[in-house]
Design a protein that fits this description.
about 120 residues, mainly alpha, 4 helices, about 85% helix
Length: about 120
Protein backbone atom coordinates (compact mmCIF):
# COMPACT_ATOMS: atom_id res chain seq x y z
CA UNK A 1 0.00 0.00 0.00
CA UNK A 2 3.02 2.28 0.32
CA UNK A 3 3.16 2.81 -3.45
CA UNK A 4 -0.51 3.90 -3.62
CA UNK A 5 -1.21 7.63 -3.62
CA UNK A 6 -2.81 8.96 -0.44
CA UNK A 7 -6.04 9.82 -2.27
CA UNK A 8 -6.43 6.24 -3.50
CA UNK A 9 -5.86 4.81 0.01
CA UNK A 10 -8.52 7.22 1.31
CA UNK A 11 -10.84 6.07 -1.46
CA UNK A 12 -10.32 2.43 -0.43
CA UNK A 13 -10.99 3.20 3.22
CA UNK A 14 -14.10 5.12 2.17
CA UNK A 15 -15.36 2.18 0.10
CA UNK A 16 -14.68 -0.29 2.92
CA UNK A 17 -16.47 1.94 5.44
CA UNK A 18 -19.55 2.22 3.18
CA UNK A 19 -19.53 -1.56 2.67
CA UNK A 20 -19.32 -2.09 6.43
CA UNK A 21 -22.20 0.31 7.01
CA UNK A 22 -24.29 -1.46 4.34
CA UNK A 23 -23.57 -4.84 5.90
CA UNK A 24 -24.48 -3.68 9.40
CA UNK A 25 -27.76 -2.18 8.19
CA UNK A 26 -28.59 -5.46 6.45
CA UNK A 27 -27.78 -7.41 9.61
CA UNK A 28 -30.11 -5.09 11.52
CA UNK A 29 -32.93 -6.19 9.22
CA UNK A 30 -32.07 -9.83 9.96
CA UNK A 31 -31.98 -9.22 13.71
CA UNK A 32 -35.30 -7.34 13.47
CA UNK A 33 -36.80 -10.52 12.07
CA UNK A 34 -35.31 -12.44 14.99
CA UNK A 35 -37.13 -10.07 17.35
CA UNK A 36 -40.31 -11.84 16.27
CA UNK A 37 -39.04 -15.41 16.52
CA UNK A 38 -36.21 -15.75 19.02
CA UNK A 39 -35.72 -14.86 22.66
CA UNK A 40 -32.26 -13.41 21.92
CA UNK A 41 -33.53 -11.25 19.03
CA UNK A 42 -33.90 -8.10 21.12
CA UNK A 43 -30.35 -8.37 22.47
CA UNK A 44 -28.93 -9.00 19.00
CA UNK A 45 -30.84 -6.04 17.55
CA UNK A 46 -29.71 -3.78 20.39
CA UNK A 47 -26.05 -4.72 19.98
CA UNK A 48 -26.39 -4.43 16.20
CA UNK A 49 -27.75 -0.89 16.57
CA UNK A 50 -24.59 0.14 18.38
CA UNK A 51 -22.39 -1.50 15.73
CA UNK A 52 -24.39 0.13 12.92
CA UNK A 53 -24.06 3.52 14.59
CA UNK A 54 -20.31 3.00 14.93
CA UNK A 55 -20.11 2.04 11.24
CA UNK A 56 -21.90 5.30 10.37
CA UNK A 57 -19.37 7.27 12.42
CA UNK A 58 -16.55 5.39 10.68
CA UNK A 59 -18.07 6.38 7.32
CA UNK A 60 -17.92 10.08 8.35
CA UNK A 61 -14.29 9.69 9.41
CA UNK A 62 -13.40 7.93 6.15
CA UNK A 63 -15.14 10.61 4.09
CA UNK A 64 -13.27 13.40 5.88
CA UNK A 65 -9.95 11.58 5.50
CA UNK A 66 -10.60 10.96 1.79
CA UNK A 67 -11.53 14.61 1.24
CA UNK A 68 -8.86 16.36 3.29
CA UNK A 69 -5.61 15.18 1.61
CA UNK A 70 -6.75 15.75 -1.96
CA UNK A 71 -9.02 18.71 -1.34
CA UNK A 72 -11.70 17.06 -3.47
CA UNK A 73 -15.45 17.38 -3.35
CA UNK A 74 -17.22 17.70 -0.02
CA UNK A 75 -20.10 15.56 -1.33
CA UNK A 76 -18.95 12.32 0.38
CA UNK A 77 -18.60 14.17 3.69
CA UNK A 78 -22.14 15.55 3.41
CA UNK A 79 -23.49 12.13 2.42
CA UNK A 80 -21.74 10.44 5.34
CA UNK A 81 -23.00 13.13 7.72
CA UNK A 82 -26.51 12.59 6.37
CA UNK A 83 -26.22 8.88 7.11
CA UNK A 84 -25.08 9.64 10.64
CA UNK A 85 -28.12 11.89 11.13
CA UNK A 86 -30.41 9.14 9.76
CA UNK A 87 -28.72 6.60 12.06
CA UNK A 88 -29.30 8.93 15.02
CA UNK A 89 -32.98 9.31 14.15
CA UNK A 90 -33.21 5.54 13.67
CA UNK A 91 -31.77 4.87 17.13
CA UNK A 92 -34.15 7.36 18.77
CA UNK A 93 -37.14 5.84 16.94
CA UNK A 94 -36.07 2.35 17.98
CA UNK A 95 -35.71 3.31 21.62
CA UNK A 96 -39.10 5.06 21.49
CA UNK A 97 -40.66 1.94 19.91
CA UNK A 98 -42.06 3.71 16.83
CA UNK A 99 -41.97 0.85 14.30
CA UNK A 100 -44.24 2.68 11.82
CA UNK A 101 -41.33 5.03 11.05
CA UNK A 102 -38.38 2.94 12.30
CA UNK A 103 -38.88 0.10 9.83
CA UNK A 104 -39.35 2.17 6.64
CA UNK A 105 -36.42 4.38 7.62
CA UNK A 106 -34.25 1.27 7.98
CA UNK A 107 -35.25 0.14 4.48
CA UNK A 108 -34.49 3.62 3.13
CA UNK A 109 -31.10 3.64 4.84
CA UNK A 110 -30.22 0.26 3.39
CA UNK A 111 -31.18 1.38 -0.11
CA UNK A 112 -29.22 4.62 0.18
CA UNK A 113 -26.21 2.77 1.56
CA UNK A 114 -26.26 0.28 -1.33
CA UNK A 115 -26.51 3.23 -3.73
CA UNK A 116 -23.55 4.97 -2.08
CA UNK A 117 -21.55 1.75 -2.29
CA UNK A 118 -22.38 1.33 -5.99
CA UNK A 119 -21.22 4.89 -6.68
CA UNK A 120 -17.82 4.34 -5.07
Amino acid sequence: MADQPAAQRGFSFLRVSIALQTLTIFLQAVSAGLLLTASYGETLHSVGARVMYGASMLYVLAAVLAWKPGGGSLRPVWQATGFLVLASVQVVLGIAHVPAVHLPLGVLMFGLSVLALARR
